[in-house]
What does this fold into?
Amino acid sequence: MRLPDEPELPLQINVVPMIDVMFALLTFFIMSTLFLTRSEGLPVNLPQAGTAQQEASAPITVTVDRSGKISLNRKPMTLDALVTQVRTLIGPNQKSLVIINADERVTHGQVVAVMDRLRQVQGVQLAIAAQKP
It folds into this structure.
Protein backbone atom coordinates (compact mmCIF):
# COMPACT_ATOMS: atom_id res chain seq x y z
CA MET A 1 0.00 0.00 0.00
CA ARG A 2 1.31 3.40 -0.93
CA LEU A 3 1.17 6.45 1.23
CA PRO A 4 -0.07 9.65 -0.40
CA ASP A 5 3.19 11.50 0.36
CA GLU A 6 5.45 9.06 -1.55
CA PRO A 7 6.40 10.10 -5.05
CA GLU A 8 5.63 7.58 -7.79
CA LEU A 9 8.78 5.95 -9.16
CA PRO A 10 9.03 5.80 -12.94
CA LEU A 11 8.97 2.33 -14.44
CA GLN A 12 12.30 1.15 -15.84
CA ILE A 13 13.33 -1.80 -17.92
CA ASN A 14 16.88 -2.90 -17.35
CA VAL A 15 18.27 -3.88 -20.77
CA VAL A 16 21.79 -4.84 -19.67
CA PRO A 17 20.89 -8.52 -18.94
CA MET A 18 19.03 -8.70 -22.25
CA ILE A 19 22.10 -7.38 -24.11
CA ASP A 20 24.27 -9.97 -22.36
CA VAL A 21 21.93 -12.76 -23.44
CA MET A 22 21.89 -11.49 -27.03
CA PHE A 23 25.70 -11.39 -27.18
CA ALA A 24 25.86 -14.92 -25.77
CA LEU A 25 23.42 -16.14 -28.43
CA LEU A 26 25.32 -14.32 -31.17
CA THR A 27 28.59 -15.89 -30.03
CA PHE A 28 27.00 -19.34 -29.97
CA PHE A 29 25.67 -19.02 -33.53
CA ILE A 30 28.95 -17.67 -34.89
CA MET A 31 30.95 -20.48 -33.29
CA SER A 32 28.50 -23.16 -34.43
CA THR A 33 28.57 -21.99 -38.06
CA LEU A 34 32.36 -22.29 -38.11
CA PHE A 35 32.01 -26.04 -37.64
CA LEU A 36 29.45 -26.50 -40.44
CA THR A 37 32.07 -26.61 -43.20
CA ARG A 38 32.82 -30.07 -44.46
CA SER A 39 36.37 -30.97 -45.31
CA GLU A 40 36.63 -33.77 -47.83
CA GLY A 41 40.34 -34.40 -47.73
CA LEU A 42 43.57 -33.56 -46.08
CA PRO A 43 45.11 -30.17 -46.85
CA VAL A 44 47.28 -30.42 -49.97
CA ASN A 45 48.42 -27.92 -52.59
CA LEU A 46 46.32 -28.83 -55.61
CA PRO A 47 47.66 -28.22 -59.09
CA GLN A 48 45.96 -25.55 -61.18
CA ALA A 49 43.92 -26.31 -64.30
CA GLY A 50 42.07 -23.77 -66.42
CA THR A 51 39.34 -26.27 -67.28
CA ALA A 52 38.70 -27.36 -63.68
CA GLN A 53 35.02 -27.77 -62.86
CA GLN A 54 33.14 -27.97 -59.59
CA GLU A 55 31.94 -31.50 -58.86
CA ALA A 56 29.30 -32.59 -56.42
CA SER A 57 30.80 -33.74 -53.16
CA ALA A 58 31.77 -37.40 -53.23
CA PRO A 59 31.68 -39.75 -50.31
CA ILE A 60 35.07 -41.26 -51.25
CA THR A 61 38.21 -39.11 -51.27
CA VAL A 62 41.73 -40.44 -51.72
CA THR A 63 44.49 -38.03 -50.71
CA VAL A 64 48.18 -38.30 -51.60
CA ASP A 65 50.11 -35.72 -49.57
CA ARG A 66 53.47 -34.10 -50.31
CA SER A 67 55.45 -36.92 -48.72
CA GLY A 68 53.52 -39.58 -50.69
CA LYS A 69 51.36 -40.88 -47.84
CA ILE A 70 47.94 -42.15 -48.92
CA SER A 71 44.71 -41.47 -47.01
CA LEU A 72 41.16 -42.64 -47.66
CA ASN A 73 38.56 -40.25 -46.28
CA ARG A 74 41.23 -38.75 -44.00
CA LYS A 75 42.32 -42.17 -42.64
CA PRO A 76 45.94 -43.10 -43.45
CA MET A 77 46.48 -46.43 -45.18
CA THR A 78 48.74 -48.32 -47.53
CA LEU A 79 48.26 -48.73 -51.26
CA ASP A 80 47.46 -52.43 -50.83
CA ALA A 81 44.72 -51.78 -48.25
CA LEU A 82 43.22 -49.01 -50.38
CA VAL A 83 41.55 -51.38 -52.85
CA THR A 84 39.81 -53.49 -50.21
CA GLN A 85 38.61 -50.43 -48.29
CA VAL A 86 37.18 -48.80 -51.43
CA ARG A 87 35.42 -52.07 -52.33
CA THR A 88 33.73 -52.15 -48.94
CA LEU A 89 32.69 -48.47 -49.22
CA ILE A 90 31.17 -48.88 -52.68
CA GLY A 91 29.45 -52.21 -52.21
CA PRO A 92 28.49 -54.72 -54.90
CA ASN A 93 26.89 -53.57 -58.18
CA GLN A 94 27.12 -49.88 -57.33
CA LYS A 95 28.99 -46.96 -58.84
CA SER A 96 30.72 -44.20 -56.94
CA LEU A 97 32.92 -41.24 -57.76
CA VAL A 98 36.36 -41.37 -56.18
CA ILE A 99 38.17 -38.02 -56.06
CA ILE A 100 41.96 -38.08 -55.92
CA ASN A 101 43.49 -35.13 -54.08
CA ALA A 102 47.17 -35.29 -54.96
CA ASP A 103 49.68 -32.64 -53.95
CA GLU A 104 51.28 -30.94 -56.92
CA ARG A 105 54.73 -32.07 -55.78
CA VAL A 106 53.84 -35.79 -55.75
CA THR A 107 55.41 -37.71 -58.61
CA HIS A 108 53.27 -38.60 -61.57
CA GLY A 109 54.15 -42.27 -61.13
CA GLN A 110 52.69 -42.41 -57.65
CA VAL A 111 49.40 -40.85 -58.75
CA VAL A 112 49.20 -43.29 -61.67
CA ALA A 113 49.85 -46.20 -59.27
CA VAL A 114 46.95 -45.08 -57.07
CA MET A 115 44.70 -44.63 -60.11
CA ASP A 116 45.68 -48.06 -61.44
CA ARG A 117 44.79 -49.74 -58.16
CA LEU A 118 41.46 -47.89 -57.93
CA ARG A 119 40.51 -48.84 -61.49
CA GLN A 120 40.64 -52.50 -60.41
CA VAL A 121 37.56 -51.90 -58.25
CA GLN A 122 34.26 -52.49 -60.06
CA GLY A 123 32.08 -49.34 -60.22
CA VAL A 124 34.76 -46.73 -59.52
CA GLN A 125 34.66 -43.49 -61.49
CA LEU A 126 37.84 -41.49 -61.01
CA ALA A 127 38.28 -37.72 -60.82
CA ILE A 128 41.39 -35.72 -60.04
CA ALA A 129 40.97 -32.61 -57.88
CA ALA A 130 42.43 -29.34 -59.18
CA GLN A 131 41.88 -25.67 -58.49
CA LYS A 132 41.31 -22.86 -60.93
CA PRO A 133 44.23 -20.44 -61.33
Observations:
- The mean pLDDT is 81.
